[in-house]
Amino acid sequence: MSAREERLMKILLSPTVSEKSTFVGEKHNQVVFRVSEDATRPEIKAAVELLFKVKVKGVQVSNVKGKEKRFAGSLGRRRNWKKAYVSLAAGQEINFQALE
Questions:
Q1: What pLDDT digit, counting tens, does each position of 6-55 carry?
Q2: Distance CA 90, CA 100 (A)
Q3: What span, in angstroms and rounded, lies between the C-alpha atoms of 66 and 87?
Q4: Which of 34, 45, 48, 75 could form a disulfide with 13 if both were Cys (CB 3.0 to 4.6 A apart)?
Q5: 0.85 exceeded by the pTM?
Q6: Domains of the chain (ranges plus CATH)?
Q7: CB–CB of 34/14 below 8 Å?
């Protein structure tokens, strides 16, 4: 495995499952992933194509600010993170249940 492939394996952290991501997936044929903070669009596209053997049409990236939380009277903050909306080409699909 080359250094580039090793880097691509570490970019996708997890799929994001929420009401919004499910709606987007059904309507626009997109999948939402939590990705590493330093990931770029071409790297995310290459990682999805490498891991899931699908054709990616486009990638949109969003930086999510961590929520402020109060714990025992002191104010804290969760970490910021990055999510990617990956548009799949027509007829392509990622089935997460088959991967388990």
A1: 999 999 999 999 999 999 989 999 999 999 999 999 999 999 999 999 99
A2: 24
A3: 25
A4: 34
A5: yes
A6: 3-90 (3.30.70.330)
A7: yes
